[in-house]
Amino acid sequence: MTAAANPIPRRSLLLAGGAALLLSGPGGALAQPASRSPIGIIGSGRLGGTVGTLWAKAGHPVLFSSRHPERLKELVEAAGPNARAGLPAEAAAFGEALLVAVPYGALPQVGQELGQALRGKVVLDACNAVVARDGAVGQAAIERGIGLASAEHLPGARVVRAFNTLGSRVLAEQAHRAGGLVAIPLAGDDAAALETASALVRDAGFDPVVVGPLSRATDFAMGARGYGQVVAAPELRRILGLTG
């Protein structure tokens, strides 16, 4: 498995930490997470590191993972006392929910190596298919529909597509944005998993927008109309043609 081991830049980590500490409740009370369930991060590069840091700052125990966890020392220190590092198998066992943020070509290997540990768990899939990098696996995902393809690579997991539309720097800078939270589109076939994922999106400092089942994940895949939109929920719903 090729989970990214490059820690995110210190500036992005500081931005993520600062954003997660913004006061948002009445009288300046710190917003509390919907739950403090443990989260495993499979792929602790820029994206996984940023989102995991936001969760750790919000009070979730977070286990960042890499084949070389000793390389994640700076990331763990910046994320704070709720974070630690380990191997991918440890993260898969640790998390009640997981974020997978690896190159799409590595996703089949994630399923093969960690499949048993992921069964029945909510897995937020943030992997994007890039044919030039991911080859036949990426091409097949685009043709099949990336949400449905991810579910096939992670059989038994309760897959929700999330956090794939914005880069790590944007996420770090825009978390807990004043004047209207940035929307994060979600797609999944399991209603309870979508509820869990929505709560985790809120904990990270964003507003979840459920687009529909995994077959609708193509609406916010790379190059689609919902991709790269740094907008509030009402505008994202308009862009995606959602009602209500």
UniProtKB/TrEMBL annotation:
<keyword id="KW-0560">Oxidoreductase</keyword>
<dbReference type="InterPro" id="IPR028939">
    <property type="entry name" value="P5C_Rdtase_cat_N"/>
</dbReference>
<dbReference type="Pfam" id="PF03807">
    <property type="entry name" value="F420_oxidored"/>
</dbReference>
<feature type="domain" description="Pyrroline-5-carboxylate reductase catalytic N-terminal">
    <location>
        <begin position="39"/>
        <end position="128"/>
    </location>
</feature>
<keyword id="KW-0732">Signal</keyword>
<protein>
    <submittedName>
        <fullName>NAD(P)-binding domain-containing protein</fullName>
    </submittedName>
</protein>
<dbReference type="InterPro" id="IPR051267">
    <property type="entry name" value="STEAP_metalloreductase"/>
</dbReference>
<dbReference type="InterPro" id="IPR006311">
    <property type="entry name" value="TAT_signal"/>
</dbReference>
<dbReference type="InterPro" id="IPR036291">
    <property type="entry name" value="NAD(P)-bd_dom_sf"/>
</dbReference>
<feature type="signal peptide">
    <location>
        <begin position="1"/>
        <end position="31"/>
    </location>
</feature>
